[in-house]
Amino acid sequence: MASQSAHQPSSPDDSARVAEFEARIARGESIEPKDWMPERYRKQLTRMMSQHAHSEVVGMLPEGNWITRAPSLRRKASLLAKVQDEAGHGLYIYCGTETLGVDRHELIQQLLNGTAKYSSIFNYPTLTWADIGCIGWFVDGAAIVNQTMLAHASYGPYARAMVRICKEENFHKRQGYEIMATLAAGTPGQRAMAQDAVNRWWWPSLMMFGPHDSESSNSEELTRWGIKRKSNDELRQRFVNLTVAQAKAIDLTLPDPALEYDEATDNWKFGKIDWDEFWRVVKGDGPCNRERLAARRKAHDDGEWVRAAATAHAAKRRAASEAA
Amino acid sequence: MTTSNHGGPTAAVFTNMTDSRDPNAGNGAATDSQWPLWEVFVQPPKGEAHEHAGSLHAVSAEMALQNARDVYARRGEAVSIWVVPSESITASTPEDMGPFFDPGNDKPYRHPQFYKVPRGVRV
Fold first, then answer.
1. How confident is the model at residue A2 (pLDDT cuts 50, 70, 90)?
2. What is residue B82's three-state secondary structure?
3. How far is B93 from chain A (nearest CA, A)?
4. How far is B56 from chain A (nearest CA, A)?
5. DSSP state, residue A262
6. pTM of the model
7. Dist CA A66 CA A133 (whole Å)
8. For B5-32, what is the mean pLDDT?
9. How many CB atoms lie within 10 A of CB B116?
């Protein structure tokens, strides 16, 4: 009775199974690892989930840089805890991806050799302490909007990982916003630092939601299969709507002269996103792409002795208990 | 946690755990990905049952338990953790769904609503 079907490629004869699969999704059922699924669904999920996991892991780098430079012990403890959470989030999603039949080692190799993508936002530098506040407020805020949607994804292990992550992500956003509120209420120099960070992070944060719906090649399929429940533009709009009031409350200015409330739709209309910049960063030419990968490779290589030691220790313990 | 948000079939929680992964992934070779896979179950406070939280790779049961604590219980989520080698879990398959669970569905007399009681009496 063991299921072999999960690894068989789809063939044209599968149209009945695809119809049944899509009917399950339409009924709101959760797709689980051993269920039959179209190969394309498996591929798209593997791509999306592994990119998501890589983003969590690479996301530790811009923030890790500031752990030793945090302005107080309280801030330092929070930042350490946040970066540890990101490692955990990476692990949840890698494990979720493995249920699709891929090996985590393979995924990590793809990250290290530069063939896998991760969120373009992490290729921007963290120049000041205010950038750490901005990452929590904007980047984690945007991630919450996206992940709240993904918590309803049709693939069970992905949705469950998102539920777990969303619970932890709120702390990330609030610690970031608190940093910004503190700086914004501080000395003129601190205010200027906060505003400068907002100016640099705002537009890249809007790009995090991906290309416009009309330009997004994967969206149609991801939506049809219930992996995504909202479009890139819908999520981006929700993020803008939430953030405008937060910026106003701490008297910081979002760097968009076109920002304007539209009563008819109850949305904040915003200006044009520089998609050339987006694609440049996605394709590897952002400010920090090379630096991030080099740091990640070094961390992986530097950890090799730990993995080797743990393996040797476990083998020794096993041998000792067998001899006893 | 994991089981609460899926609207899927009863068997789904069991199908989450094994078999669709590489069966050779648990042979203890040198790289981290080759370390065996463990499934993690955590018991939340207030006397609830252990629930599946996720999985992780570890070289030994002791390491699996320590990593499970670090990954799945950083905020007081658990009073107890089980780690189980994924390959030790025997799970029902989606193909079993109909026949395997069918006997339960045609015995309504197992449910209290099957029985009539006189009007106005609380039983």
1. very low
2. strand
3. 7
4. 7
5. E
6. 0.86
7. 11
8. 37
9. 6
Instruction: Identify all chain B residues contacting A103, using CB atoms and an 8 Å cutoff.
Output: 22, 25, 33
pLDDT band at A13 (very low <50, low <70, confident <90, very high): low
Contact B6/A30, CB-based, under 8 Å? Answer: yes
DSSP states along A32-43 = -TTS---HHHHH
Helix (H) or strand (E) holding A198: helix A188-207
Secondary structure of residue A161 in the 3-state scheme: helix
Q: What is this model's ipTM?
A: 0.85
- Lookup result for tokens 């640099």: A200
- Nearest-10 Cα torsion for A220, A226, A231, A232: -90
- Within 10 A of A317 (CB to CB), how many other CB atoms are there? 13
Q: What is the predicted pLDDT for the residue at B22?
A: 41
Nearest CA in chain B to A309: B30
Q: What is the token pair recorded at A158?
A: 């992905």
Residue B94: its pLDDT value, please? 82
Q: How far apart are CA B74 and CA A11, in angstroms?
A: 45
Q: b/e per residue, A229-245, with b = 16+ CB within 10 A?
A: bbbbbebbbbbbbebbe
CB–CB of A34/B13 below 8 Å? no
| Predicted pLDDT at B28 | 39
Q: Provide the token pair at B45.
A: 């406070």
Strand partners, A269: A260
Q: Among B48, B78, B83, which Cα is nearest to B62's?
A: B83
In degrees and rounded to multiples of 5, residue A42 shows phi and psi of: -60, -45
CA angle A139, A140, A145 (to 5 degrees): 100
Question: In B, which residues are within 8 Å of A31 by CB distance?
Answer: 8
Q: Packing angle between helix A73-98 and helix A104-112, nearest 10 degrees?
A: 120
- Strand ranges (E), chain A: 260-262, 267-269
Closest CA to A107 of A59, A157, A50: A50
Exposed e or buried b per residue across B95-104, where buried means at least 16 C-beta atoms within 10 angstroms of its C-beta: ebbeeeeeee
Which pLDDT band, with edges at 50, 70 and 90, does B33 fall under?
Answer: low
Buried b (16+ CB within 10 A) or exposed e, A25-62: beeebbbbbbbbbbeebbebbbebbbbbbbbbbbbbbb
Under a CB-based contact definition with an 8 Å cutoff, are residues A149 and A165 in contact?
no
Residues of A in contact with B2 (CB under 8 A): 160
